[in-house]
Specification:
This protein is of the alpha/beta class and 242 residues long. The chain is built from 10 helices and 8 strands. The chain has one domain: P-loop containing nucleotide triphosphate hydrolases (Rossmann fold), CATH 3.40.50.300.
Amino acid sequence: MLFALWSPKGGSGTSVVTAALGSFLARRRPVLLADLAGDLPAIAGLAPERTHPGLSRAPFPSLASWLSAGPAAPSDALDTLVLPIADGLGLLPLGPAAPGMRIADLAAESGAALAAALHDGPTVVADAGRAEHPVQRAVVEVADVSLIVVRGCYLALRRAVDDQLTARARGAVVLDEPGRSLSPADVADVLGCPVLASIAVDPSVSRVVDAGLLLHRPPPRLTGPLRPLVDTLDGCAPGWAA
């Protein structure tokens, strides 16, 4: 199964939710985190040298370089890029692209090829960031289940309504901030999909992320709201996404 998380606006917590969700699922089955936004290694507390190994993994020293090679890139090369980061949890870091290439310039076919390759392995939770690049959007489109991560923010919801990917989302994860006039119920009404988890924005989560301990000491304010979502995703059969 391939789960893809994305947000129409930066700063919505997509990478943190992706990491926490993947860690929670890994308690039940092997899980691979696929980093398409570039923030998961830092959230996992990894030193830069672990995710930028230079030429040691030539010709594909990073996921970005694999994507740069296009749809013809060999699927088995992805296995050499996976970093074990916790029990039952691996990370496929984005890393640097091939010289002269930018992720933003890569064709959607590369993202579709990645999604197809990831379908053959363990459960994958992908961080597609803002889904602003063709590669990211292709992964969201091909995923078995896509989840939109948003705050109760008018601008974010306006962008989401205008994005065709929203219609494909199975549900939303809402970061609920104090003082926002839009509630999770309002978000569900605007997006036209159920809110599967509502997470209160809390300083304890930021402190754990800043310390690089999210995967090892996830705070209850984060894990509690995610538990029902994990139960839903863990029980997914292939036909659930049909």
